[in-house]
TrEMBL record:
This is CheY chemotaxis protein or a CheY-like REC (Receiver) domain. Transmembrane segments: none annotated. SUPFAM superfamilies: CheY-like. The modification 4-aspartylphosphate is found at residue 192. It comes from Sphingomonas palmae.
Length: 264
C-alpha cells in the first residue's frame, strides 16, 4: 500500500484538528495542504517508525510550529474572531491547546500526544488541565441544543451546565430549532444532523445563520462525510458516540474564537 493510501483515511480528521486549532476552515485546510505538500516534496522524511496517522499529525505539528509565527507577523488585517483568539492565546500556552485537542477531540493517548508535541506524558496531562481551566474561565455563553434523542440531549445539557453555561432550550426538529433561536438568541448551537421528523440539523443551522451569526458545533456519527474539503463546511465537529471530555473541548474551542464571549 502506498503512503498516500495509508494517509487518505486520516485526512478528514486532520482537517478537523486544523480547523479547531485555527478556528477557521480556510486556515485549517491551508495547514493541511502545506502538510501534504511537505510529505510529497520529501517522502523520505516522513516518520516510518510510527503509525501513519501519528506520522501525519507529527508532520502537521512541524508545519504549524514553523509557520504560524510568520502568519501572525505577515497577516496584516485579521478578522474579529482571530483577534479575539490571539488575545486569549496571549494568556495561554499554545501547547496546552494542542494537548487538549489532540487528546480530547482527536482521541490520541497522552503517550501519543507527548510524541506529537515533544513533551513527556505527565506534561501532556498537565497541559490538558491547564487548557481546560483557562478556556472555561475565559468563555461563558448561552447554549441551544438541537438533538432528538432525549438521553443524548440530557447528557449534553449536563455538560453545558457543568461548564458554567446557560441553556436556552432543546429543539428536536428543524422548525423548532429555528423558532427557538429566533425567540431566545443563543451564543452557541450544538446540532445533531438527523432530527426527529427526518429534517436536517444542517438545514436548521443554515436557517439560523441566515438571521444572525453564532458558533455551531455539529454532532454526527459520520464526521468524514462533512470533512471533504468542500466549502462551506462546519469548523467544529463531535463524533458519535462521544466522550464528555470531547464535548467540553469542542465547546471551549468554539467559544474561544467567538468575540461575544470576551471576558470583561
Amino acid at each position: 500500500m502506498s503512503l498516500g493510501q495509508q494517509l487518505a483515511p486520516h485526512l478528514p480528521f486532520l482537517r478537523r484538528y486544523g480547523r479547531a486549532l485555527t478556528g477557521s476552515q480556510m486556515q485549517g485546510d491551508r495547514y493541511v495542504r502545506a502538510t501534504l505538500e511537505a510529505i510529497v516534496a520529501a517522502p523520505e522524511e516522513f516518520p516510518r517508525d510510527v503509525d501513519p496517522r501519528l506520522g501525519l499529525y507529527r508532520t502537521f505539528q512541524a508545519i504549524w510550529n514553523s509557520a504560524h509565527i510568520e502568519d501572525d507577523v505577515d497577516a496584516g488585517g485579521v478578522d474579529d474572531s482571530e483577534a479575539i483568539a490571539r488575545a486569549r492565546l496571549a494568556r495561554m500556552s499554545p501547547l496546552s491547546r494542542q494537548a487538549l485537542l489532540l487528546t480530547a477531540m482527536e482521541g490520541f493517548t497522552p503517550e501519543d500526544a507527548a510524541y506529537l508535541i515533544d513533551a513527556d506524558t505527565q506534561r501532556v496531562e498537565e497541559l490538558v488541565n491547564e487548557a481546560l481551566a483557562e478556556i472555561e474561565k475565559q468563555t461563558r455563553a448561552r447554549v441551544m441544543i438541537i438533538e432528538d434523542e432525549p438521553i443524548i440531549a440530557m447528557d449534553i445539557e449536563s455538560i453545558v451546565r457543568d461548564l458554567g453555561h446557560e441553556l436556552t432550550g432543546v429543539a428536536v426538529t428543524r422548525d423548532e430549532a429555528v423558532a427557538l433561536a429566533m425567540e431566545d438568541r443563543p451564543g452557541l448551537v450544538l446540532a445533531d444532523i438527523q432530527l426527529a421528523d427526518d429534517s436536517s440539523g444542517i438545514d436548521a443551522v443554515k436557517d439560523i445563520l441566515a438571521e444572525f451569526n453564532v458558533p455551531v458545533i455539529f454532532i454526527t456519527a459520520f464526521p468524514e462525510r462533512l470533512l471533504t474539503g468542500e466549502r462551506p463546511e462546519p469548523t467544529f465537529l463531535i463524533t458519535k458516540p462521544f466522550q464528555r471530555s470531547t464535548v467540553k473541548a469542542a465547546i471551549s474551542q468554539a467559544l474561544f474564537f467567538d468575540q461575544s464571549t470576551v471576558p470583561a
